[in-house]
Amino acid sequence: MRHAEVTLDDKFLLKEGRVFMTGVQALLRVMIDQQRLDEAAGRNTAGFLSGYRGSPLGGLDQQAHRARKHLDTVHVVFKEGLNEDLAATAVWGSQQANLFPGALYDGVFGMWYGKAPGVDRTGDAFKHANFAGTHPMGGVLAVAGDDHTCKSSTLPSQSEYAFQDFEMPVLSPADVQEVLDFGLLGYGLSRFSGLWVGLIALADTMDSGVTIDVSLDRHQIITPTNHTLPSGGLGIRLKDQPLDKERRLRTQKIPAALAFARANRIDRVVLGAPRPRLGIVCQGQAYKDVIEAFAAMQISFAEAADLGVAIYKVGMPWPLEPQGLRAFAAGLETLMVIEHKRPLIEVQARAALYDLPAHARPRIIGKTDEKGHPLLSELSSLSVAEIALAIADRLPSGAHMDRVHDYLSRVSAASMAAVTLATEQQRKPFFARAVRIIHRPVCPTVPAPWPASGAIIWRAFLILRRTSTVTWAGRV
User: Fold this and answer.
1) Residue pLDDT, tens place only, 2-54
2) SS3 call for 362
3) What is the predicted pLDDT for the residue at 416?
4) Is the N or the C terminus of the chain less surrounded, counting Cβ atoms within 10 Å?
5) What's the CA gap between 351 and 210, in Å, rounded?
6) What is the DSSP string of 76-134?
């Protein structure tokens, strides 16, 4: 395509080739492409988008308003939620449309979005909606905006555990390309299993702008042929009883989700080795950090493979598909799980490999090392240097270690210099689009708590010096 033909609408219009877009825009592209793929397959579907703004998804509503004409073209309706749980309830309703006479479409695929605190407060709606299920030509994605380092939140967050409690499969894209790819896989997974599907959104992904492949023919969703669905399917139904929902979810829907993940290789080996010794398992942002760690140590993929390193990239951290992991772990001496925050994959990996014979079961390390000592922190966010150091300590000796030690020495020296040059200066937040600042009555003598949620805490502690604590503000 000639440069003169390029427009800002290409991110939503083009059906092949490469286009520049952000992670937030890729979420809208997921809905647009899902309708296009359905139409190509002879299905007459529509989409419904609702949620409540908050970083790193604070601009999704703005982007949806800007893209209104493109969403209208593919029958995607956008309605901002009054709050997160009412938005989730509305999305749940989109799956019920075809249970009654008069439906205008064969099915409606839905997308909910919200910041991590919104995931927490929406738990009851999520549980009920997930137990009820999705329509076979609908499906639901729940996009959770996480803030690992608490840059714009009252607390650091990790929504995978909440989704696990809701019994919703979780997808973890590593970059903008995977936001699009995993989003469409998520709809396929939701339709096949009858489950709502969570998708993790981090600022590093949502705020990134890159050129990605938007060709529709890339998306070939595979329906598992070795997994038999029960009579009546797994979709939402009328007059469904609570215990029947529970039985179907635990004994049929979750196994169906695992079968779908296997068939579509959501988890996969990205680096094999002729004689693997050290296997690294990672997901999402951690995968990008592992790749950056090897680049920083000046070790190429080919050299890493020669050193006995293999890498297994997990796209669905819960539930962890065990068959692929067992095949990857075969013959390894050590399996290192690298993940940010609390251990989600590591715990499942230990369970998946527990029954292997002792001679075939690798040592599993991650948050703790081979001797049970702390290794990779559960706090804040892992740095590339921390990951590089953990990997370097388990590489065989050789000429490559000179480059590794040079990098680690530079990082150590830079860290010391940063401590030495540290000052009392702070970068104060100036503006948060998703936050309405409210003023409490001035209390002249007693320091008062401030009702805070999200970025509003910035003002409470950084501007109003007399604030002593915070409490939950709540929303209608």
Assistant:
1) 545 888 899 999 999 999 999 999 999 999 999 999 999 999 999 999 999 88
2) coil
3) 57
4) C
5) 38
6) EEE---SSHHHHHHHHHHHHHGGGSTT-SSSEEEEEEEEEHHHHHHTHHHHHHHHHH--
Structure tokens at 411: 């990082």
pLDDT digits (tens, 9 = 90+) for 302-348: 999 999 999 999 999 999 999 999 999 999 999 999 999 999 999 99
For CA atoms 121, 127, 132, 133, the dihedral sign is positive
Is the torsion defined by CA of 20, 178, 264, 324 positive or negative?
A: positive
Residue 449 has pLDDT above 60, yes or no: no
Give all domains of the chain, ordered by start, each with its CATH number.
Answer: 14-263 (3.40.50.970), 268-420 (3.40.50.920), 425-476 (no CATH)
Residue pLDDT, tens place only, 126-176: 999 999 999 999 999 999 999 998 888 888 999 999 999 999 999 999 999
Prior bond of 447 cis (ω within 30°): no
346-404 pLDDT, tens digit per residue, is: 999 999 999 998 888 999 999 999 999 999 999 999 999 999 999 999 999 999 999 99
Return all residues near 327 (Cβ < 8 A) that are at least 6 apart: none
Kind of pairing between the strands at 268-271 and 309-314: antiparallel
Dihedral pair phi/psi, residue 116, rounded to 5°:
-50, -45
User: How many CB atoms are located within 10 Å of the residue 23 CB?
Assistant: 27
- Cβ atoms 386, 377 nearer than 8 A: yes
Can you tell me the distance from the alpha carbon of 270 to that of 310, in angstroms, rounded to the nearest whole number? 8
Q: What is the pLDDT of residue 431?
A: 56
> Which strands form 197-202's sheet, in the order they lie side by side?
76-78, 45-51, 107-115, 140-146, 197-202, 170-171
The long-range contacts involving 98-106, CB below 8 angstroms and separated by at least 24 positions, are 98/135, 98/137, 98/138, 99/236, 99/237, 99/238, 104/46, 105/44, 105/45, 105/46, 105/75, 106/38, 106/43, 106/44, 106/45, 106/137
With H, G, I as helix, E, B as strand and everything else as coil, classify residue 181.
helix
pLDDT per residue over 73-108, tens digit each?
999 999 999 999 999 999 999 999 999 999 999 999
The H or E element containing residue 10 is helix 10-13
Contacts for 387-391: CB closer than 8 Å, 24+ residues apart:
387/286, 387/289, 387/290, 387/293, 387/338, 388/293, 388/294, 388/296, 388/297, 390/336, 390/338, 391/278, 391/280, 391/290, 391/293, 391/294, 391/297, 391/309, 391/336
Given this model, what pLDDT does residue 1 score? Answer: 47
Find how far residue 119's CA is from the centre of its chain: 13
Token pair recorded at residue 272: 């094999």
Residue pair 161/206 in contact by the 8 Å Cβ criterion: no
Residue with tokens 């529970």: 246
